[in-house]
Amino acid sequence: MSVSEFLANLVIPLNLSVTLLVLAAILFIVRWRKTAAAIAVGALAWAMFWALPTTSLWAGGLLEQRYPHEPATALPAAQAIVVLGGNTANGRPNWFEPYDPKTTVLRTDTAARLYAADRAPLIIVSGAALDGGVSEARMMASALERDGVPTAAIIQEDHSLTTHQNAVYTAKMLRQHGIQRFLLVTSALHMPRAMASFQKQGLSPIAAPSPAQIVVPEAPDFSFWLPNLRTLNASRSIVKEYLGLLVYWVRGWV
Predict the structure, then answer these.
(1) Residues 83, 197 within the same domain
(2) Residue 23 belongs to a domain
(3) Tell me, what's the pLDDT at 3?
(4) What is the pLDDT of residue 123?
(5) What's the domain count of the chain?
(6) Measuring CA to CA, which residue among 114, 176, 165 is closest to residue 135?
(7) Fewest beta carbons within 10 Å, which of 46, 74, 82, 161?
């Protein structure tokens, strides 16, 4: 694991809170008890903050609503559809509800709807093999084929490991094929960083995000202020997205 990957995992609310509690325990043992108490309180407060649904609705909503989802028929026609690898919140249609594989909405589903609506004749799928196995591009291509997209209409970019590389490598493909107007598909949460990354490459993508996932569920017993573990676990995507935007800005990638 690289240093950047370690830090990205460390800032996840649950991981950071546990790490701080362990640090507090060590400091307590060595008799730095006031410092230990302050760190422990901070760790618990941080975990509680991200366990509240209202926190995710606010922080995640700011990102998701930057480029609101629109039906495929409402989007303009283009020369291609670019789909980025990734799987925010396992494709759950609602952040606060249990995972059900029968109701997931993946990025390839959004791309397939765009293709079926004749928004573009070509789909470029972008993503390498994160675990050394089958690339995300290959898996997305297979999913699109199952949804009725012809194999000949799919181009795979299977070298990119990050959003920055998605933009860099896909930009080369787009220019090689003379494509200037394209629809960019990713999760609503990831779209601000993705758009900024592609714009940094001198491109003008049209945002076509999957439906927002951080929305108030219809369950009558839903509470904005009742903390729960599912919300705490899911908040990792929000925190990592904000961290990603910061890191990309510092490195000049957006």
Answers:
(1) yes
(2) yes
(3) 65
(4) 98
(5) 2
(6) 165
(7) 74
